[in-house]
Predict the 3D structure of the following.
Amino acid sequence: MKRGDVTVKAMKVFTLVILTVVCLLTFGNVWGLDIPDETIQTARMNVGIVGGGVAAVAGGSCPADGSPDIDFNTGTDSVAFGEQADGTHHYVGTTYIPASTKQICKIGFQFIRGSGDVTDKTYTCKIWTMSGTALDAVITNGTSGSKASDGWWTATWVIFEFSGNPTMTADVTYCITVETADDATNYQGAYYTYGGALYNGSGSGKWTSAGVQHDAPVADRDMNIKIYYYD
């Protein structure tokens, strides 16, 4: 058998395996196989089935810091968050409707010290689904690694990194938030701008620690934000 024939046959076998997996993931439960949801989700991410179609295999390369796919950094106003000890301003962020299905590797917010001493603060970014105006659930792998403050006396871009290839599906409303411990004396500010309207369905807002909307997103008030997609 020629080497080329072996390669062709190997490709046919590989294609057959992929098609079999796709069929099982798509129709398994319909056929009564009772495949657990978490198994389906993991397999879909590994095979590359995202948003009902076949996409690139999960992962890929992540752009370098400073080279995001979405870059909005024109705002010079800042809004405080975590400055209410009762947690009413626990999360600050922006709603976002991606135009196409994407896997996220990093998200950046622009911080400045709001008041007091924030040296010992830590911050986390989360990607949420929405239930009306409320934060519903963090998407799979949608919690970033934490970032420790260095004081951030002047405007500083803080880049939060994600692992596990969190996926945002096209035409679904998400909320991208950042949070820290609530403290009425020592708190952070995040930059935004008026009149941006960069994102479809966007707007900056605040949510309580329970995920209830406190300050509604304003359609023309966008957070300064950088979003990095896996290639």
